[in-house]
Specification:
By secondary structure, the protein is an alpha/beta fold. It contains six helices and six strands, in the order E-H-E-E-E-H-E-E-H-H-H-H.
């Protein structure tokens, strides 16, 4: 678990395709981090197609001032689609944590990183809607990285979710936490 030290900089990229809710889940994470006293800059990149084109959302987190608001060396990379691998890979720090969807991002390049292939979209489908794969990923990221307090993240999800989808999003967040905790336990056993 990486913790922010005094004025430390931490970078997160959530990558996939347009329509997967990447920008929304990054905003939820940014809100949760800000609520716990962190300074956060959030940015996004997307192709002009509304669905299916490359999309990512980046967070730069610091305990002090954010000196440059764009990601340059990613500590945590969440991949919800294979399309996001190529543009994200050059920014990956050595020993970074990579979380990739088993169904939509089955292949990763070789390299010096810690990878967890998790059934993010399949879990969302089992919950009743593939559209919450972003929230499943958010829970898995939080569980594996320790970057954000669970209570703060739940509050951010509550604040950004329409009432008719709240139970589904909270279930998705909890399912993501379970996936992350299970993956973390497996790594601990194998070491």
């Amino acid at each position: 678990m990486k913790r922010l030290m005094r004025d430390a900089r931490l970078e997160i990229r959530i990558g996939g395709t347009g329509g997967q809710g990447l920008i929304l889940c990054a905003k939820m994470l940014a809100d949760a981090l800000a609520a716990t006293g962190k300074r956060v800059a959030q940015s996004q990149t997307y192709e002009p197609t509304s669905r299916g084109g490359y999309c990512n959302s980046d967070l730069v987190i610091s305990t002090g001032e954010v000196d440059f608001p764009l990601a340059t060396a990613v500590d945590y990379l969440v991949l919800l689609d294979q399309l996001a691998v190529k543009p994200s890979w050059p920014l990956l720090k050595p020993s970074a944590l990579v979380i990739a969807d088993t169904r939509l991002c089955p292949e990763l390049p070789k390299g010096d990183y810690r990878a967890h292939h998790l059934p993010l979209s399949r879990t969302a489908i089992e919950l009743g809607s593939e559209r919450v794969a972003n929230i499943v990923a958010l829970g898995a990221l939080a569980a594996l990285s320790g970057v954000c307090e669970r209570k703060a993240l739940e509050q951010a999800v509550r604040a950004e979710t329409p009432k008719s989808f709240l139970d589904l999003n909270l279930d998705a967040l909890a399912a993501g936490y379970r996936l992350g905790e299970q993956a973390s336990a497996i790594v601990a056993v194998t070491q």
